[in-house]
User: Fold these one by one.
Assistant:
Number 1:
Amino acid sequence: MHTTLVLFRQDLRLADNPALYEAAQAGAVVPVYVLDDTSPDEWRMGGASRWWLHHSLTSLAHDLTQQGSRLILRRGELEAEILRLAQQTGAQAVVWNCGYEPFAQEGEKRLADALQKRSVATRGFHGNLLFTPGSILTKAGQNFSVFTPFWRTALQASPPAAPMKRPRKLAAPSRWPSSDKLASWKLLPTKPDWSGGLRQNWKPGEATARQTLSEFIDDKLSHYGAGRDRPAIQATSRLSPHLHWGEISPRQIWHAVQAHIHRHPAAGQNGSKFLSELGWREFSYNVLYVHSHLPERNLRQNFDKFPWRRDAAALKAWQRGRTGYPIVDAGMRELWHSGTMHNRVRMIVASFLIKHLLIDWRHGERWFWDTLVDADLANNAFNWQWVAGSGADAAPYFRIFNPVLQGEKFDAKGEYVARFVPELKNLDPRLIHAPWRADAASLKTAGVVLGKTYPKPMVDHDAARQRALAALAHMKTQVKELAA
Ligand code: FAD
């Protein structure tokens, strides 16, 4: 019987999985996941991602078993492991859904070349984005560097194809190859096990992803525009880790939202706003596709001359949520506890690191990479460069968030801060975003001793703002001098 190896990567789902679907039509299927931890890859998975992967693979293996199949796990260098498996199973073909990160593309190319040399057919499908990177272009055939015209053009292109059903049956090969035991990969943290907050907040897997989407559409989509900037409430979809791991495809989301809008036209505006956020994901992937160095290098080279400060103590205070700015600390502690952070607060903490502390955005990007359950090379790098002002269609550097005003605007009742910075929870909401402005009596009643129970602000906002603007001016002078 014709046998196909299906290489799972960031597509840990059975439904709308073009590679799996096609393989199932052709004959026997051997589903495989290879943990390639061997290459000296600086973007090796972070701790929160490894936790997610463990549970997502458990869920995928369970779903495959229900279909009469199995998930074969191998650890090692991708190319070597797949070649070995192809030989062991006598597979005539190896298929996958393409990754778009530079290392994924290179790895797939090497793999395809090696397999073709051994007369094993290969095919990469597109299933993880709405529009294949590089397919949405200006009239002149160029890549877009600004989001709005990119998304407008995408919306005018042929709509994404309807999602595929999960294959009805997965035929087993005549003999199953051996598989690693997932536990032997030690993806879960021990000594200490810091994953309690992750367990409370997340349940990886395709079934949860689908349920999360349908609950979001039924209960939250109609308030998305109004609620999405308020970190104290769960008004967004929380689909990002499921999307990153491909437990749900963007096409499934797109079509479910479109169908809802069709049934409830009043949901149109919120639905479009939500889909445009998926558009930012598409745009980030396009920018990474065009600029493979996005995660490591400033897209605007002027920023190579930016006078970043090296300050390990300040970086640590930021990472641990001990800056003395409550909204920043709440965000950083939410991240540490639950592996995520609300988008509005991601922007605030990133701006604080880059502009108030003058620390290079790449340090923040790395910290997020290790701690986020949705850590995603394209989205993370794109957004860090967006906040820094060094990226594509980025916020200008001189726009410096005031963390107190941001807190008062988006967390007016101080509920988000009270949840993640409990030592401030008894402060009057009007003071919770700037406890240093509280008088001695209010602090005493709330049990707050600044500098003891909660840090004093590590920098003064106005002074930090001036320092950031001076750094920007310095960079511009340097660039001018070089050009002269
Ligand atoms: P929703 O509001 O429900 O949005 C739906 C989906 O759209 C998200 O799941 C996500 O896939 C996509 N999306 C939303 N906002 C953005 C955006 N700004 N850029 C790209 N895609 C977006 N997102 C990640 O998935 N991984 C990251 O590593 C990541 N790092 C970030 C770093 C910084 C500094 C900032 C400011 C943002 C980052 N984001 C990242 C984008 C965004 O914060 C998250 O996608 C969002 O908070 C996820 O919550 P949600 O699924 O409820 O979003």
Note: The beta strands are 3-8, 28-35, 72-75, 93-97, 121-125.
Number 2:
Amino acid sequence: MLTRTPQETWSLFLEFIEEKCSATEFQNWFASIRLIDVGSDDLCLEVPNIFVQEYILDNYKKDLAAFLPTKPSGELAVTFIIAEAKKKQTPLPATEPVSPAPIENQPGQPELKLNPFYTFNNFIEGPANQFVKSAAFGVASRPGKSYNPLFIHGGVGLGKTHLLHGIGHYTREHHKKLRIQCITTEGFINDLVENLRSKSMDRMKRFYRSLDILLVDDIQFLQNRLNFEEEFCNTFESLINQNKQIVITSDKPPGQLKLSERMIARMEWGLVANIGVPDLETRVAILQYKAELKGFRIPQKVAFFIAEHIFNNVRQLEGAINRLSAYCRMMNLDATEEVVEKTLSELFQYTPQKKISVDNIIKSVATIYDVRVSDLKSTSRSKDVAFPRQVAMYLAKELLNDSLMKLSTAFGGKTHSTLLHAWKKIAGQVETDETLRRQIDMARRNLES
Ligand code: ADP
Ligand code: MG
């Protein structure tokens, strides 16, 4: 029988559940769970707090039981550890490759828990994240003096937490005297619950209000938690009023969060920056970088192949590299496109191709040349209309597989030789005419968007 390691089992489950639930549900309940390597075949999961453990057991028990080991009684054979309660030095996952940034907490400073790999240096920039990266760097260089608060929002797995921790690392290194706290919204809520229980709210207030930099991850967790929201808002205002730096991340822009108007307005005070999906070249650069860190080589062509198929989540790109490198090492194979197809195809995302039709082409060309669709289909020989019509014919022959006969009918019954003539003429002209080439590119992009 093929037995899986706890890591493989957990990865399989995560892949399954990520598909099954919404991105927000995944982010809220599963993204923060960590598999703890206890060096045996047992499955041990670290959850950020008891709420997460109870929630997933209440709501996802069947799914969990389908993947994770169970006892003969049917109960899950899984140990849960609450993050706060576990020993401080959890060993780093064995897969992490390079030596991380040193973690040194200054004496007398609050303990700062940062992922050692989430530094600015390890962050690959591209057009979709350059703005937010430079905003993060600006804030880290001059805390409290540039944008306050900085609000970073964007989809799952695009590097929000990475940048937040990047600010933490940088400020710890460059502003040694400043008191920094980096916390998830869950962590803040837990703290609050704990302090309410032990009647030490004053101490908590004093602690948070004495900070110079407060980094808060995943503020969307504050939604529907009215009591906690108010305390967070008070902390927020107290810090901002003293020009202390606040950085917040979220999966949505402030206005789309179900929070009080007061809270939303506060978060919009400073700079709201969106982190987008990296473009193809950046995805390739990220893949190459992550592969290099693992001492694994992938040819450029193969990196493009992967990046073309995994396009909206950097975490999945990382997962792809991990899986591919493990497979290649195990089987002693080079990373070729065939091997990629074999090992990664279930991670691949396919966009439904928009169906291109002659009518769409005519519409798109009509917009570019500011003429009427009916004119392009008419027999008018006026130059204003005849030229765009030829462009549309050219595009139709280029983009569609239909016979000339069929295409010409769609243009109001022109002969197929008219269409062929138009195609030849435009195909020749586009070689040398830069303006025409741009117009055609634009029409093409309209069709594909
Ligand atoms: P989010 O918080 O937006 O869900 P994370 O910050 O956790 O996403 O990023 C997911 C993973 O992808 C992390 O391992 C992170 O290091 C990596 N990552 C995201 N963006 C980049 C980037 N631009 N360069 C390098 N690694 C990145
Ligand atoms: Mg995150």
Note: The radius of gyration is 28 Å.
